[in-house]
Design brief:
Order of helices and strands: EEHEEHEEHEHEHEE
Number of strands: 10
Structural class: alpha/beta
Number of helices: 5
Distance between the termini: 22 Å
Largest sheet: 6 strands, mixed
Strand content: 25-35%
Strand order of the largest sheet: 1-9-10-8-7-2
């Protein structure tokens, strides 16, 4: 039996959701080389320590091979601070970060299930849901009545939800249950996650 449903205030219609961390690309974009708006800067040296005295940015630019290295502004708190970076290593780090973000994204697929549904239609929808789970996606099963359709008794609706639990239990775990209204027949959504990802 489902317990203590949470209030669900709205439904988003797209069939696929991708949850990502809030983008901070614009705020994290570093100024480099001649775009750095400072004449004098402090340099992070190879040992990680700052140069004792500010150095002229133009002199630093002349001292490096700009085809393989670049100067990046890392801080403007107090005296501006820069670091000399290798282009290949920086590109590798950026690629690894992008791959990590891609691996950590959460994709949610929606499956619409009518309270009045044939066994064949239910099996088809659950087969689709299982494919999503096997790919590592989450699945949000949305139970509702079709327009103009009178929902069956609450006991029948609860039995349908439990039947889906049984069909998904071997590969997925319930991580969230939401309802719109007090009755299970109004609108119920259940989110499943792959068991290997459900920590």
């Amino acid at each position: 039996m489902l317990r203590s449903p949470l209030a669900f205030r709205y439904i988003v219609r797209p069939s696929t959701w991708v949850i990502r961390q809030k983008s901070t690309a614009s705020s994290n974009r570093r100024l480099t080389n001649a775009d750095i708006p400072h004449e004098f800067v402090k340099l992070v040296q190879e040992d990680g320590k700052l140069s004792e005295q500010p150095v002229k940015l133009a002199s630093l630019l002349q001292s490096i091979n700009q085809s393989t290295y670049f100067i990046e502004l890392v801080s403007e708190q107090g005296s501006p601070i820069v670091r000399i970076k290798n282009k290949k290593e920086a590109m590798k780090q950026e690629r690894e970060m992008k791959e990590k973000k891609l691996a950590n994204r959460v994709v949610i697929k929606q499956i619409q299930v009518s309270w009045v549904i044939s066994d064949g239609d239910l099996q088809h929808k659950m087969a689709q849901a299982r494919k999503y789970i096997e790919k590592g996606d989450r699945v949000w099963v949305i139970y509702s009545s079709k327009p103009g359709q009178v929902p069956p008794p609450a006991q029948n609706c609860t039995s349908l939800v439990e039947k889906v639990h049984v069909l998904m239990d071997d590969i997925a775990s319930v991580i969230r249950v939401d309802r719109l209204g007090k009755s299970v027949t109004s609108h119920t959504t259940v989110q499943y996650a792959p068991k290997k990802q459900n920590k």
